[in-house]
Amino acid sequence: MMVGGTLLGALALAAWFWLRPNQARVHPALGAETWDVVADGIHNSNTDLIDYRGQFLLVHAASPYHMGTSDCRLAVRRSVDARHWEKVAELRMPGEDIRDPKFAVIAGKLFLYALPNRGFYAQPYGTVYSTSDTGERWTPFERVTLMGTEPEGWLFWRPKTRDGLTWYVPAYWNHHGRSILLRSTDGVRWSLVSEIWHGEGNDETDFEWLPDGRILATARLEVTPDRLLGNRDASTLLATAAPPYESWSYHRSRVTRLDGPALFAYDGRIYAVARYQAGPRGVFTRLGGALSRKRTSLFLVEPERLVRLSDLPSAGDTSYAGVVLKDGALFASYYTSEIRRDYPWILGMVLPTDIRMAHVPLDHLARLAREKAGPKEAGSPK
Fold first, then answer.
1. Position 20 confidence tier, pLDDT thresholds 50, 70, 90
2. N or C: which end of the chain has fewer CB within 10 A?
3. Fold of 29-373
């Protein structure tokens, strides 16, 4: 009887995980519209988005599952309106996994940065790049050149520029625990500016510029990396630095552990599209835990706090967005498991995931930020 009861309990729990309806909270004031871009029954993930020569370019990973596999490839798609897409290229690393692609146009050249990975676990070992004139034909992947730090092991996030001449990129160490800021003028050779953070399983790091010229960066702090049940002390690092970006000040947020961040600036404020962990945090649902429910969400990012504004329709394995601001709207690409269900992350990693596009009027976003966070002068921790 005891064995039968245990089995029935396990089956009931599995059915609940599989069938429970989605509880993502999309704020009605956001005015968000979302739609499928790719829904082909495989595990699509890790998106980025750019407005290139008046057209949208989207890149995403396509794979049998979340874990590392040499079957993974990067698909590049093109669209005029972000609704109707054509596939224009596919990039691979022979015999290796490839993930976390990021676009940038540097010195007039279209770059695609990505992270190659060997083995089953998602543990990339460095950063490679490819270039293109049109987005259709790409050069073979090459390794970036790093000066002033270790030549290997740094994983690029998203390069950005404020003046169109000098580009900056945050990079985190492939064994976790360190993040740095690099700069370049050609996109190939990068030199060390400063160390952003050291310790606590420091991982994915993104940044944007505040109106006064300071950089505001976020970093995913795992504490103990890659733990199945996450860590109760995990958090989001909020780091700021004034030019020349060599000295940093810090705060933390426990609103979530900000995985896969895509930061962007609008009307004097910084926002992020990133992963949010929904629900209570207990023994089996610590921040970053594989049994937890995940969302792709919108955040207001300030030097001393992180304010969650709204979810986007999402569940399971999700987030890793790309962002374009165009025609008065935010266009955000992201990936997600079946949005009618609310799978835990561990199920989402082995089930199919779709690429979706979100359209949010920027004035709606700014209005919601004022409603939830107060005027721009507000910056005290909550």
1. confident
2. N
3. Neuraminidase (2.120.10)
